[in-house]
Amino acid sequence: MTNATTPKIKGPGFAEFVCLIAIMMALNALAIDAMLPALPAIGADLGVVHENTRQWIITAYLLGFGVAQLAYGPLSDRYGRKSVLLSGIGIYVTFSVVAAFSHSFALLLLARVGMGIGVAATRVLAVSIVRDRYEGRTMARVMSLSFLVFLGVPILAPTVGQLILLIGPWQWIFWLFALFGAGFMIWAGLRLPETLHPEDRREIRLSPIVEAFTQALTNRQAMGYTLAMTFIVGGLFGFINSAQQIFFDIFKAPQLFTTVFALVACGIAVSSLLNSQLVEKLGSRMISHSALLGFIFFSLIHAGVSLSGHDNIWTFSILQGCKMFCFGLVAGNFGSMAMEPMGHIAGTASSVQGFISTIVGALLGFAIGQSFNGTTVPLTVGFALLAITGLVLVLWAEKGKLFKARHSSHKPVT
Q: What is the C-alpha separation between 414 and 411, in angstroms, rounded?
Protein backbone atom coordinates (compact mmCIF):
# COMPACT_ATOMS: atom_id res chain seq x y z
CA MET A 1 0.00 0.00 0.00
CA THR A 2 1.23 3.50 -0.79
CA ASN A 3 2.36 5.33 2.35
CA ALA A 4 2.42 8.99 3.23
CA THR A 5 6.07 9.45 2.28
CA THR A 6 5.83 7.77 -1.14
CA PRO A 7 2.89 9.32 -3.01
CA LYS A 8 1.93 7.98 -6.41
CA ILE A 9 2.36 11.46 -7.95
CA LYS A 10 5.31 13.75 -7.25
CA GLY A 11 4.73 17.27 -6.05
CA PRO A 12 4.80 19.21 -2.78
CA GLY A 13 5.95 17.45 0.36
CA PHE A 14 3.40 15.77 2.61
CA ALA A 15 2.93 18.75 4.96
CA GLU A 16 2.57 21.33 2.17
CA PHE A 17 0.23 19.04 0.25
CA VAL A 18 -2.00 18.65 3.31
CA CYS A 19 -2.05 22.43 3.74
CA LEU A 20 -2.95 22.97 0.08
CA ILE A 21 -5.87 20.56 0.34
CA ALA A 22 -6.94 22.08 3.65
CA ILE A 23 -6.95 25.65 2.33
CA MET A 24 -8.75 24.46 -0.79
CA MET A 25 -11.48 23.05 1.44
CA ALA A 26 -11.37 26.10 3.71
CA LEU A 27 -12.51 28.42 0.91
CA ASN A 28 -15.92 26.80 1.19
CA ALA A 29 -16.13 26.91 4.98
CA LEU A 30 -15.05 30.55 5.06
CA ALA A 31 -17.79 31.53 2.61
CA ILE A 32 -20.40 29.99 4.92
CA ASP A 33 -19.32 30.62 8.49
CA ALA A 34 -17.95 34.16 8.19
CA MET A 35 -21.41 35.21 7.01
CA LEU A 36 -23.27 34.12 10.14
CA PRO A 37 -22.70 37.19 12.35
CA ALA A 38 -23.55 39.44 9.37
CA LEU A 39 -27.00 37.97 8.64
CA PRO A 40 -28.93 40.53 10.76
CA ALA A 41 -27.00 43.45 9.20
CA ILE A 42 -27.52 42.13 5.68
CA GLY A 43 -31.22 41.57 6.35
CA ALA A 44 -31.66 45.09 7.70
CA ASP A 45 -29.66 46.71 4.92
CA LEU A 46 -31.40 44.84 2.08
CA GLY A 47 -34.92 44.96 3.49
CA VAL A 48 -35.40 41.31 4.46
CA VAL A 49 -38.51 41.26 6.66
CA HIS A 50 -38.61 37.69 7.98
CA GLU A 51 -35.61 36.36 9.90
CA ASN A 52 -35.90 32.84 8.47
CA THR A 53 -35.63 34.32 4.95
CA ARG A 54 -32.04 35.32 5.70
CA GLN A 55 -31.16 31.63 5.71
CA TRP A 56 -31.34 31.75 1.90
CA ILE A 57 -27.93 33.48 1.99
CA ILE A 58 -26.50 30.15 3.18
CA THR A 59 -28.76 27.82 1.20
CA ALA A 60 -28.43 29.64 -2.16
CA TYR A 61 -24.67 29.25 -1.88
CA LEU A 62 -24.97 25.55 -1.01
CA LEU A 63 -27.32 24.85 -3.93
CA GLY A 64 -24.89 26.42 -6.41
CA PHE A 65 -22.08 24.54 -4.72
CA GLY A 66 -23.91 21.22 -5.04
CA VAL A 67 -25.22 21.44 -8.60
CA ALA A 68 -21.92 22.55 -10.16
CA GLN A 69 -20.09 19.51 -8.84
CA LEU A 70 -21.72 17.36 -11.51
CA ALA A 71 -19.82 19.31 -14.18
CA TYR A 72 -16.44 19.54 -12.46
CA GLY A 73 -15.97 15.77 -12.23
CA PRO A 74 -16.11 15.01 -15.98
CA LEU A 75 -14.21 18.23 -16.76
CA SER A 76 -11.39 17.33 -14.38
CA ASP A 77 -11.24 13.77 -15.72
CA ARG A 78 -10.85 15.19 -19.25
CA TYR A 79 -8.77 18.36 -18.86
CA GLY A 80 -6.91 17.58 -15.65
CA ARG A 81 -7.26 18.71 -12.07
CA LYS A 82 -5.21 21.90 -11.97
CA SER A 83 -6.72 23.94 -14.80
CA VAL A 84 -10.28 23.12 -13.75
CA LEU A 85 -9.49 23.98 -10.12
CA LEU A 86 -8.00 27.36 -10.99
CA SER A 87 -10.94 28.18 -13.28
CA GLY A 88 -13.40 27.42 -10.49
CA ILE A 89 -11.53 29.61 -8.01
CA GLY A 90 -11.56 32.40 -10.57
CA ILE A 91 -15.37 32.19 -10.74
CA TYR A 92 -15.53 32.23 -6.92
CA VAL A 93 -13.39 35.39 -6.74
CA THR A 94 -15.44 37.13 -9.43
CA PHE A 95 -18.79 36.51 -7.77
CA SER A 96 -17.39 37.48 -4.36
CA VAL A 97 -16.75 40.91 -5.87
CA VAL A 98 -20.28 40.95 -7.34
CA ALA A 99 -21.68 40.16 -3.88
CA ALA A 100 -19.69 43.03 -2.38
CA PHE A 101 -21.43 45.41 -4.80
CA SER A 102 -24.93 43.95 -4.32
CA HIS A 103 -27.63 46.48 -3.48
CA SER A 104 -30.57 44.07 -3.49
CA PHE A 105 -31.28 40.77 -1.78
CA ALA A 106 -32.01 39.12 -5.16
CA LEU A 107 -28.61 40.15 -6.59
CA LEU A 108 -26.86 39.00 -3.44
CA LEU A 109 -28.49 35.57 -3.69
CA LEU A 110 -27.50 35.36 -7.36
CA ALA A 111 -23.92 36.20 -6.42
CA ARG A 112 -24.00 33.59 -3.67
CA VAL A 113 -25.11 30.96 -6.18
CA GLY A 114 -22.22 32.02 -8.42
CA MET A 115 -19.75 31.78 -5.54
CA GLY A 116 -21.02 28.28 -4.82
CA ILE A 117 -20.70 27.27 -8.47
CA GLY A 118 -17.09 28.43 -8.53
CA VAL A 119 -15.91 26.97 -5.25
CA ALA A 120 -17.60 23.64 -6.04
CA ALA A 121 -14.40 22.84 -7.93
CA THR A 122 -12.60 22.60 -4.59
CA ARG A 123 -14.99 19.92 -3.29
CA VAL A 124 -14.51 17.71 -6.33
CA LEU A 125 -10.83 18.40 -6.89
CA ALA A 126 -9.73 18.11 -3.25
CA VAL A 127 -10.95 14.52 -3.04
CA SER A 128 -9.79 13.65 -6.57
CA ILE A 129 -6.30 15.07 -6.09
CA VAL A 130 -5.86 13.20 -2.81
CA ARG A 131 -7.15 10.02 -4.46
CA ASP A 132 -4.69 10.54 -7.33
CA ARG A 133 -1.75 10.59 -4.90
CA TYR A 134 -2.78 8.30 -2.04
CA GLU A 135 -5.07 5.39 -1.27
CA GLY A 136 -6.62 3.38 1.57
CA ARG A 137 -5.81 4.31 5.14
CA THR A 138 -3.14 6.77 4.05
CA MET A 139 -5.77 8.60 2.01
CA ALA A 140 -7.98 8.67 5.11
CA ARG A 141 -5.06 10.11 7.11
CA VAL A 142 -4.44 12.84 4.54
CA MET A 143 -8.12 13.74 4.46
CA SER A 144 -8.29 13.75 8.25
CA LEU A 145 -5.23 16.01 8.61
CA SER A 146 -6.56 18.29 5.88
CA PHE A 147 -9.89 18.36 7.65
CA LEU A 148 -8.11 19.36 10.87
CA VAL A 149 -6.31 22.32 9.28
CA PHE A 150 -9.45 23.27 7.39
CA LEU A 151 -11.41 23.31 10.65
CA GLY A 152 -9.42 26.29 11.83
CA VAL A 153 -11.60 28.28 9.44
CA PRO A 154 -15.03 27.52 10.97
CA ILE A 155 -13.49 28.02 14.40
CA LEU A 156 -12.20 31.47 13.49
CA ALA A 157 -14.48 32.56 10.62
CA PRO A 158 -17.46 33.83 12.69
CA THR A 159 -15.06 35.82 14.85
CA VAL A 160 -13.38 37.23 11.75
CA GLY A 161 -16.78 38.18 10.36
CA GLN A 162 -17.71 39.84 13.64
CA LEU A 163 -14.43 41.77 13.77
CA ILE A 164 -14.96 43.03 10.21
CA LEU A 165 -18.42 44.26 11.21
CA LEU A 166 -16.85 46.26 14.04
CA ILE A 167 -14.71 48.27 11.64
CA GLY A 168 -16.68 48.24 8.40
CA PRO A 169 -19.86 47.19 6.57
CA TRP A 170 -20.83 43.61 5.75
CA GLN A 171 -19.60 44.08 2.16
CA TRP A 172 -16.04 43.95 3.46
CA ILE A 173 -16.56 40.25 4.28
CA PHE A 174 -16.98 39.52 0.57
CA TRP A 175 -13.79 41.42 -0.22
CA LEU A 176 -12.07 39.07 2.25
CA PHE A 177 -13.42 36.09 0.31
CA ALA A 178 -12.08 37.54 -2.95
CA LEU A 179 -8.61 38.20 -1.51
CA PHE A 180 -8.42 34.76 0.12
CA GLY A 181 -9.42 33.07 -3.13
CA ALA A 182 -6.94 35.07 -5.20
CA GLY A 183 -4.14 34.21 -2.76
CA PHE A 184 -4.91 30.51 -3.04
CA MET A 185 -4.96 30.73 -6.86
CA ILE A 186 -1.41 32.07 -6.83
CA TRP A 187 -0.18 29.39 -4.39
CA ALA A 188 -1.84 26.51 -6.23
CA GLY A 189 -0.76 27.84 -9.60
CA LEU A 190 2.87 27.87 -8.49
CA ARG A 191 3.07 24.75 -6.32
CA LEU A 192 0.34 22.25 -7.19
CA PRO A 193 1.26 19.79 -9.97
CA GLU A 194 -1.14 18.09 -12.35
CA THR A 195 -2.03 14.82 -10.60
CA LEU A 196 -4.11 13.14 -13.32
CA HIS A 197 -2.09 10.67 -15.38
CA PRO A 198 -2.37 11.29 -19.14
CA GLU A 199 -3.55 7.72 -19.66
CA ASP A 200 -6.41 8.27 -17.18
CA ARG A 201 -7.91 11.22 -19.04
CA ARG A 202 -11.42 10.51 -20.24
CA GLU A 203 -13.03 12.14 -23.26
CA ILE A 204 -16.21 14.14 -22.69
CA ARG A 205 -18.58 11.85 -24.53
CA LEU A 206 -22.07 10.96 -23.41
CA SER A 207 -21.54 7.20 -23.29
CA PRO A 208 -18.43 7.20 -21.01
CA ILE A 209 -19.97 9.88 -18.78
CA VAL A 210 -23.18 7.88 -18.39
CA GLU A 211 -21.11 4.76 -17.71
CA ALA A 212 -19.02 6.53 -15.04
CA PHE A 213 -22.10 8.07 -13.41
CA THR A 214 -23.79 4.67 -13.42
CA GLN A 215 -20.81 3.06 -11.72
CA ALA A 216 -20.71 5.81 -9.11
CA LEU A 217 -24.45 5.53 -8.44
CA THR A 218 -24.68 1.74 -8.31
CA ASN A 219 -21.70 0.80 -6.18
CA ARG A 220 -23.18 -0.25 -2.85
CA GLN A 221 -20.29 0.86 -0.66
CA ALA A 222 -19.84 4.19 -2.41
CA MET A 223 -23.52 5.11 -2.38
CA GLY A 224 -24.22 3.76 1.10
CA TYR A 225 -21.54 5.92 2.69
CA THR A 226 -22.38 8.89 0.47
CA LEU A 227 -26.02 8.82 1.54
CA ALA A 228 -25.12 8.24 5.18
CA MET A 229 -22.81 11.25 5.06
CA THR A 230 -25.55 13.24 3.36
CA PHE A 231 -27.93 12.83 6.28
CA ILE A 232 -25.23 13.56 8.85
CA VAL A 233 -24.24 16.71 6.92
CA GLY A 234 -27.94 17.69 6.79
CA GLY A 235 -27.85 18.02 10.55
CA LEU A 236 -24.71 20.16 10.36
CA PHE A 237 -26.33 22.48 7.79
CA GLY A 238 -29.38 22.70 10.02
CA PHE A 239 -27.14 23.84 12.86
CA ILE A 240 -25.43 26.43 10.64
CA ASN A 241 -28.79 27.78 9.44
CA SER A 242 -30.22 27.99 12.96
CA ALA A 243 -27.20 28.89 15.11
CA GLN A 244 -27.39 32.67 14.82
CA GLN A 245 -31.10 32.76 15.69
CA ILE A 246 -30.67 30.28 18.53
CA PHE A 247 -28.02 32.40 20.26
CA PHE A 248 -29.58 35.77 19.45
CA ASP A 249 -33.28 34.97 19.93
CA ILE A 250 -33.52 32.00 22.31
CA PHE A 251 -30.54 32.36 24.62
CA LYS A 252 -30.33 36.18 24.32
CA ALA A 253 -26.54 35.89 24.23
CA PRO A 254 -25.29 37.34 20.92
CA GLN A 255 -22.00 38.21 22.59
CA LEU A 256 -21.33 34.50 23.18
CA PHE A 257 -22.25 33.35 19.68
CA THR A 258 -18.80 33.42 18.07
CA THR A 259 -17.12 32.00 21.19
CA VAL A 260 -19.47 29.04 21.58
CA PHE A 261 -19.53 28.42 17.84
CA ALA A 262 -15.72 28.23 17.92
CA LEU A 263 -15.77 25.84 20.89
CA VAL A 264 -18.27 23.57 19.13
CA ALA A 265 -16.09 23.59 16.01
CA CYS A 266 -13.11 22.71 18.20
CA GLY A 267 -14.86 19.43 18.95
CA ILE A 268 -14.56 18.51 15.28
CA ALA A 269 -10.93 19.65 15.16
CA VAL A 270 -9.92 17.56 18.18
CA SER A 271 -11.62 14.43 16.87
CA SER A 272 -10.11 14.91 13.40
CA LEU A 273 -6.64 15.08 14.92
CA LEU A 274 -7.41 11.97 16.96
CA ASN A 275 -8.65 10.21 13.84
CA SER A 276 -5.47 11.04 11.91
CA GLN A 277 -3.45 9.36 14.66
CA LEU A 278 -5.61 6.25 14.98
CA VAL A 279 -7.04 5.51 11.55
CA GLU A 280 -4.08 3.54 10.20
CA LYS A 281 -4.02 1.44 13.37
CA LEU A 282 -7.71 0.83 14.00
CA GLY A 283 -9.17 1.28 10.54
CA SER A 284 -11.81 3.61 9.14
CA ARG A 285 -14.75 1.36 9.89
CA MET A 286 -13.99 0.73 13.55
CA ILE A 287 -13.55 4.45 14.24
CA SER A 288 -16.38 5.85 12.15
CA HIS A 289 -18.98 3.24 13.06
CA SER A 290 -18.27 3.71 16.77
CA ALA A 291 -18.46 7.48 16.33
CA LEU A 292 -21.77 7.20 14.48
CA LEU A 293 -23.27 5.31 17.43
CA GLY A 294 -21.96 8.04 19.73
CA PHE A 295 -23.45 10.67 17.44
CA ILE A 296 -26.85 9.00 17.71
CA PHE A 297 -26.52 8.68 21.50
CA PHE A 298 -25.81 12.38 22.07
CA SER A 299 -28.44 13.40 19.51
CA LEU A 300 -31.13 11.44 21.32
CA ILE A 301 -30.09 12.88 24.70
CA HIS A 302 -30.15 16.42 23.31
CA ALA A 303 -33.55 15.88 21.71
CA GLY A 304 -34.88 14.63 25.05
CA VAL A 305 -33.48 17.64 26.92
CA SER A 306 -34.98 20.02 24.37
CA LEU A 307 -38.39 18.34 24.28
CA SER A 308 -38.55 18.48 28.07
CA GLY A 309 -38.01 22.24 27.96
CA HIS A 310 -34.69 22.15 29.84
CA ASP A 311 -32.29 23.12 27.06
CA ASN A 312 -30.19 26.18 27.88
CA ILE A 313 -27.01 27.70 26.52
CA TRP A 314 -24.85 25.30 28.57
CA THR A 315 -26.65 22.07 27.77
CA PHE A 316 -26.93 23.13 24.13
CA SER A 317 -23.24 23.97 23.83
CA ILE A 318 -21.99 20.84 25.62
CA LEU A 319 -24.25 18.39 23.79
CA GLN A 320 -23.71 20.07 20.42
CA GLY A 321 -19.97 19.91 21.06
CA CYS A 322 -20.22 16.18 21.79
CA LYS A 323 -22.12 15.63 18.55
CA MET A 324 -19.55 17.59 16.57
CA PHE A 325 -16.74 15.58 18.17
CA CYS A 326 -18.38 12.43 16.83
CA PHE A 327 -18.98 14.14 13.49
CA GLY A 328 -15.23 14.72 13.10
CA LEU A 329 -14.60 10.98 13.48
CA VAL A 330 -17.30 10.17 10.94
CA ALA A 331 -16.77 12.70 8.14
CA GLY A 332 -13.29 11.99 6.79
CA ASN A 333 -13.67 8.23 7.10
CA PHE A 334 -17.06 8.07 5.39
CA GLY A 335 -15.70 10.19 2.55
CA SER A 336 -12.66 7.94 2.13
CA MET A 337 -14.72 4.75 2.19
CA ALA A 338 -17.16 6.18 -0.34
CA MET A 339 -14.25 6.94 -2.71
CA GLU A 340 -12.33 3.72 -2.02
CA PRO A 341 -13.82 1.66 -4.88
CA MET A 342 -13.91 4.65 -7.26
CA GLY A 343 -10.22 5.25 -8.01
CA HIS A 344 -10.60 4.69 -11.76
CA ILE A 345 -13.29 7.39 -12.02
CA ALA A 346 -12.28 9.54 -9.05
CA GLY A 347 -13.27 12.89 -10.57
CA THR A 348 -16.72 11.80 -11.71
CA ALA A 349 -17.37 9.81 -8.54
CA SER A 350 -16.36 12.75 -6.36
CA SER A 351 -18.70 15.05 -8.29
CA VAL A 352 -21.63 12.65 -7.97
CA GLN A 353 -21.02 12.15 -4.27
CA GLY A 354 -20.54 15.86 -3.67
CA PHE A 355 -23.70 16.71 -5.59
CA ILE A 356 -25.81 14.30 -3.56
CA SER A 357 -24.36 15.16 -0.15
CA THR A 358 -24.49 18.91 -0.72
CA ILE A 359 -27.86 19.31 -2.45
CA VAL A 360 -29.79 16.84 -0.32
CA GLY A 361 -27.89 17.86 2.83
CA ALA A 362 -28.57 21.55 2.13
CA LEU A 363 -32.28 20.90 1.62
CA LEU A 364 -32.47 18.85 4.81
CA GLY A 365 -30.63 21.59 6.71
CA PHE A 366 -32.84 24.25 5.16
CA ALA A 367 -35.94 22.33 6.24
CA ILE A 368 -34.59 22.25 9.79
CA GLY A 369 -33.74 25.95 9.67
CA GLN A 370 -37.12 26.93 8.28
CA SER A 371 -38.76 24.98 11.11
CA PHE A 372 -37.18 27.33 13.66
CA ASN A 373 -39.97 28.23 16.09
CA GLY A 374 -38.19 29.98 18.94
CA THR A 375 -36.99 26.70 20.52
CA THR A 376 -34.17 24.23 19.87
CA VAL A 377 -36.63 21.35 19.30
CA PRO A 378 -36.58 21.39 15.47
CA LEU A 379 -32.78 21.28 15.40
CA THR A 380 -32.26 18.63 18.07
CA VAL A 381 -35.03 16.32 16.87
CA GLY A 382 -33.81 16.80 13.30
CA PHE A 383 -30.31 15.76 14.34
CA ALA A 384 -31.60 12.59 15.99
CA LEU A 385 -33.74 11.53 13.02
CA LEU A 386 -30.97 12.19 10.50
CA ALA A 387 -28.39 10.34 12.61
CA ILE A 388 -30.57 7.23 12.86
CA THR A 389 -31.16 7.33 9.11
CA GLY A 390 -27.40 7.51 8.62
CA LEU A 391 -26.95 4.31 10.64
CA VAL A 392 -29.57 2.52 8.53
CA LEU A 393 -27.68 3.50 5.39
CA VAL A 394 -24.34 2.30 6.79
CA LEU A 395 -25.92 -1.04 7.66
CA TRP A 396 -27.18 -1.26 4.07
CA ALA A 397 -23.73 -0.45 2.70
CA GLU A 398 -22.10 -3.10 4.88
CA LYS A 399 -24.87 -5.71 4.50
CA GLY A 400 -25.82 -5.48 8.14
CA LYS A 401 -22.35 -5.63 9.67
CA LEU A 402 -20.45 -2.89 11.48
CA PHE A 403 -16.83 -2.29 12.45
CA LYS A 404 -15.08 -4.36 9.75
CA ALA A 405 -14.95 -4.63 5.97
CA ARG A 406 -17.52 -6.81 4.26
CA HIS A 407 -14.90 -8.47 2.05
CA SER A 408 -11.83 -9.69 3.87
CA SER A 409 -9.95 -9.83 0.56
CA HIS A 410 -10.48 -6.16 -0.19
CA LYS A 411 -7.27 -4.14 -0.21
CA PRO A 412 -6.44 -1.99 1.51
CA VAL A 413 -8.48 -3.34 4.39
CA THR A 414 -10.15 -0.56 6.34
A: 8
Type of residue numbered 191? R
pTM: 0.79
Model pLDDT for residues 85-132, shown as the tens digit of each residue:
999 999 999 999 999 999 999 999 999 999 999 999 988 788 778 877
